[in-house]
Amino acid sequence: MKRLLSFGLMALASFGAAGMSMAEEAATNATTTCPAGEGTCSVTAGLAKLPKLAYMVGEESICCSEMAKAKAKETGAKLVYLVGTKKFDDETAAFTGLVEETEKFVDQFSKPQECKVSGAISIGGQECSCSVMAGEIAQNLKKAMDTVAVSYKVGDKACSCPVDAKATAKSSGLKMMFVVNEEATECEQTARLNLAKAKYQAGLIAMAKSSDTATKN
């Protein structure tokens, strides 16, 4: 591990954050270690492939939610939210779409994929010489990704069981928080997004370490 880079896994629990949408807020305030060598970090490149929330005002594509909202107000054109090729009319539905697409993307990342044309097998973006090798990589990926999980916190009390957390929140009158890699949010949708991203990041790091070791050997 040779370089420290910053990545985002945290999102706000409400849509009222000034200057940022929930999806944009999900791109700040976390750190990880990149095990790659000099040059472009494979973890950085991998994270850039995650689904993103974009905005369309009229025929103009805009990446910032506040700029898009200002443009829509100025021109009177309709603001459309985009997640890949899917279009949404409101931010809540768009964020739900982003969460679902991110979960699907991460799920596919961890499974061996066979090219229908060449017959080549790849997993995690890495081409494998055979199905046995793909299976071994899949196991390593699953092991790394399974180390990431949601835990819960109510006040100062932390627990791993959502049922217990809900009961404690009800009896105490305090909010139940979802925690992923020490980042807490009261929004379950945001927690799902954080979890998917954290699992994906763990998988990317495992793949990068494996490739780095293989290169040195």
Largest sheet: 4 strands, antiparallel
**C-alpha Rg (nearest Å):** 20 Å
Domains (count) = 1
Low-confidence stretches: 1-33
Note the gap between the termini: 16 Å
How do the SSEs run, as a string of H and E?
A: EHEHEEHEEHEEEHEEHEEH
Tally of individual helices = 7
- Strand elements, count: 13
Order of strands side by side in the largest beta sheet?
4-3-5-6
Name the average pLDDT: 81
* Overall morphology: flat
Percent helix among the residues? 40-55%
- Judged by helices, strands and strand pairing, the structural class is alpha+beta
β content, as a range? 15-25%
Briefly summarize what is shown.
This protein is α+β, with helices and mostly antiparallel strands and 217 residues long. The chain has helices at residues 22-25, 42-47, 65-75, 91-109, 131-145, 162-172, 188-216, and strands at residues 3-6, 31-34, 53-57, 60-62, 79-83, 86-88, 113-114, 121-123, 126-128, 151-154, 157-159, 176-180, 183-185.
